[in-house]
Amino acid sequence: VGLLYLTRGEAGRTGGLVEKAQLGQARTRETQAVAQLLGADYLRMCDFPDSGIERTAPDSIKQVILEEIRQ
User: Fold this and answer.
1) What is the pLDDT along the chain (71 residues), one digit of tens a residue?
2) DSSP for the chain?
């Protein structure tokens, strides 16, 4: 089982726990921990813009998803 995240969650709320500039890195660490807890075989985190993915070319997103399906 693998996990694919299209964004790093950098546009989310910090809850006062981390500086806004560090949020993407914090979310990445959280996601890595979740993947480990779930026993995922792999984790891929893409760098599409969080809270703006709708402005990303659909073909770019589709390509990433297709690559993951084919693996």
Assistant:
1) 899 999 999 999 999 999 999 999 999 999 999 999 999 999 999 999 998 888 999 999 999 999 999 98
2) -EEEESS--TTS--TTSS-GGGHHHHHHHHHHHHHHHHT-SEEEE--PPTT-GGGS-HHHHHHHHHHHHH-
